Amino acid sequence: GFQNASSPLMEQLIFFHDHTLTILILIISIVGFNLFSTMHNTNIDQHMMESQGLELFWTIIPSFILIFIGLPSIRLLYLLDEVYNPAITIKTIGHQWYWSYEYSDFINLEFDSYMIPSNEMKMNMFRLIDVDNRMMVPLNSQVRTLITAADVLHSWTVPSMGIKADAVPGRLNQVNFYTNRPG
Per-domain residue ranges for the chain? Predict the structure, then answer.
């Protein structure tokens, strides 16, 4: 299962996952039924052994299935890379044990975000996930995040929004998202 979607993009990703999973379950069911019936059938039909219609069927139907999966996938890829006019830009820099955030639309608004040590955690906190300073983004606004790293490779991820970007030293990656739910 997925987390509850916090952005329209993640909702579309979940719909695509369900769409593809439905097609795969249908294909597996049909192939499984055919295998089962072939194993338990002792009769041999000459028309099934040398049938041009059957060969045409199992050549054309998979291409239609691939198109049926590929078109929504291409649409979703373009939605992922669509750049809108952002309301705010945040520069995210990955360091070996913490993240730095710079709100470039404001003067001198930057901070570091460290994990909370296990001995300082309260009962309702998540181990190795909760931090001392969280990145705040406005609700119902388009946000652009520029992601890079200072020393080693990192992965900046927000699963409920469908965002995952690699932070690579010397390279600037860009991610756009729209939040429609607080949290």
Answer: 8-41+50-81, 88-179
- What are the residue ranges of helices labelled H in the chain? 8-40, 46-49, 52-81
Nearest alpha-carbon partner for 1 in 29, 21, 24, 30: 21
Beta-ladder partners of 110: 102
Residue 53 region by backbone torsions, left for phi larger than 0, else alpha for psi between -120 and 50, else beta: alpha
Tell me the pLDDT tens digit for each residue of 16-62: 999 999 999 999 999 899 888 878 877 766 566 677 777 888 889 99
The domain over range 88-179 is classified in CATH as 3.30.9.10 = no
Tokens of 12: 């579309």
Pairing of strands 142-149, 173-178: antiparallel
In this structure, the number of other CB atoms found within 10 A of the CB of residue 144 comes to 19
- Whose CA is closest to 173, among 84, 76, 71, 93? 93
Task: Indicate the burial class of 143 (C-beta count within 10 angstroms; 0-12, 13-18, 19 or more).
Answer: buried
